[in-house]
Structure formats: C-alpha cells, structure tokens
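Schema walk-through. Below, the input block comes first and the output block second. Nothing else is stored per chain. Lengths vary across the set, and this one has 246 residues.
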Amino acid sequence: MSFITKNNGQFVYFDAQLQNPIWRGKHVLDFGGNVGNILHHPTSTIDHDRYWCIDVSGEAIAAGQKAAPEAHFVFYDRYNFEYNPNGIRDLPIPEMRYKFDFILALSVFTHTGKAEMIEIVNHLRGFLNDGGQLAFSFFDPHYLPQDSDTSNLKYYFQQRARDLSAREIDASTNKASGASWCTLPNGKLEIENEGLERLQGVQEGEGYLAFYTPAYLKTIFPQAKILEPVSPFPRQHCCIIDESPR
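--- output ---
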C-alpha cells in the first residue's frame, strides 16, 4: 500500500507562511499533496474546482479524488526511493492546463536529493502566474524548536538510526555542527553529500531525508524568502519564491 498522510495542518501552515492571502478564486497546485488534506481543514478557503494535486502515490490520488470530486488529482509516477520505488526515474512533471497563483509543497524536498530539488523547483516556477508564489518546506539541520533542546538533525537521526547508541548519534551529529547541508540516506549520516548510492532497496524503517541551512538554501535560490517554522509543523522552515510580473 502506498503512503497516505495523516497530517491535516497543511492549510494552517501555508496560510500563516504566506501571510493569510486571499485563496478564493485562485488556482492552487499542491505538489506532493497526497490526499489533498489542505482542502479539508475547517479553515481552508481554497476553491475545490481551482485546486490541483500531483502526487507519486496512486492510492492517495484515488482517495483524494473520491473525497473532493470537484478538485483535480494527477498521479505522477516518478521514482521516489521512499514513496514510489517502482516509479520512473526522472519522469517530467505532467503538463498543466493552467498557470497557478500558488504552488505549495509540504515536506517534499525533505525526501529528495539536492539536484532533484533544484530541477523540480525550477520546473514548477514555470507553472506560476505573474505574481504567483511557490512555497515549500525544508529542514534546517541545526534548528531547535522553541519547545525542544534537540536539533532537527539529531531528532530525525534518532528516529532513522535505531541501531546506533545515543553516544554514536551525538558523535555523528557533532561532526555536522558546521555543515551547510546534510542527508540521512537509510539512517546513515552524509555531510554535504547526497548519499544516493546508499539507497539500494526499501526496507521497513528506511528512507531518505535532506537538510539545508537557510543561508545555504539562499545560495541555491537567491531570490527566495526564508521563513522560520510555524505551527503545526514546528521543525519545517519555509522557502517562498515570488514570480515577478514579466
């Protein structure tokens, strides 16, 4: 069975990060939107008939379409190590009938390599209307949420490397203390390296996580605005790219 998310705070998160924009009448692309939970939060004001969701989970797309029949759900059979290991590598994003005022991606590029993130973000920017906004979340490895003394990297390292002792995790995390970016392929720490060669086959509990400091992400997308996390995803920063009118 492919992945079905239980998260339901997507609208609250992006509404706050984008400073409460007017959603009604706007075309919205939810890239990696799974079952489209962003539509169903009690405060969501996104028009169902102006909403598109693209996701690599066929079951999520089917479930989302059933729950929101006026919306538009598109299966994207692209390879992803963790969520679609039988997909097609480097499959282009499906062409869209419309340009979009908002393109959103929650916890998508936290699960892809850096080169793939850059490729997809640049492609998605081509789907924006003049004045449109692309917003996606990412993990800063060194960030400490207000209610925690555990950095993002250590927090997820503990979850993904259960065979390591606390001392071993601390030692590895300390090595990454000055890193601009790092990854956790199959629970192994890679410092400033994608580590994709570690991804040989999906086993229970395995996966891929990527982390970037805000300063480093700004070097990749210099036009972007970087915002600190907000509830209900207190470990995920937000990168916002505005498409200036041409």
